[in-house]
Amino acid sequence: RWINEALMRRKLEKLSFVGQDWGGIIGPGALSLSPGLVQGMVMMNTGIFAPEQKLQISRIHRIAKTPVLGDFLIENYTTAFAGMDRVQGDPASIPQDVKELYGRPVLESGNAKAPLAMMRLVPDGPDHPSTATMREIKAYVRALTVPVELVWGTKDPIGGQRAGAMLENFP
């Protein structure tokens, strides 16, 4: 809601939206509160999905969702950023200095729970707390009649296989 409020204060009449990863979900969620504002979208490796049955999610997401164990391991023994180059399917794609930049806001803020909380937001079934909101966002994007470009990295082991599902959202 605060993102939508900020957009309204700017008194924008139209905008083009570019979203990647969680931004591709959060942005349309905010924009759904201002129908007619979006004139086009570019969506990159994101996933707007509301599971109707229990899903098998990635190993790291399953670990993160495990109470106590997930907290302990994610906060103390790994970071969401340390293995980004390996997880993205191409170890040479993210140099060490770039990985460090990704992790810096979390490390410098002292908020080790942020990546854990983000991983726990990934809906893994119809009863997940995020699923109802995802349904609303999905309905919003499916009703859009604006140009949409999907840009997809197929080597992304988490989102790379979701291009087909995203195509369904933008007929």
Structural class given helices, strands, pairing?
A: mainly alpha
The radius of gyration over CA amounts to 17 Å
- Give me the number of helical elements: 9
Number of β-strand runs? 3
Largest sheet, spatial ordering of strands:
1-2-3
- Gap from first CA to last CA: 27 Å
Largest sheet: 3 strands, parallel
As a percent range, the share of strand residues is: 5-15%
Low-confidence runs: none
Helix-strand pattern, N to C? HEHEHHHHHHEH
Helix content: 40-55%
Can you summarize this structure?
This protein has about 170 residues and is mainly α. It is built from nine helices and three strands. Helices cover about 45% and strands about 10% of the residues.
Detailed description of the structure:
It contains nine helices and three strands. The chain is mainly alpha-helical and about 170 residues long. It has a three-stranded parallel sheet, covered by helices on one side. Helix 2 links the parallel strand 1 (about 15-20) and strand 2 (about 40-45). The mean pLDDT is about 85.
Topology at a glance:
Blueprint: H1 2-9, E1 15-20, H2 23-31, E2 38-44, H3 59-64, H4 69-76, H5 84-87, H6 96-109, H7 113-120, H8 131-143, E3 148-151, H9 163-169
Parallel strand pairs: 1-2, 2-3
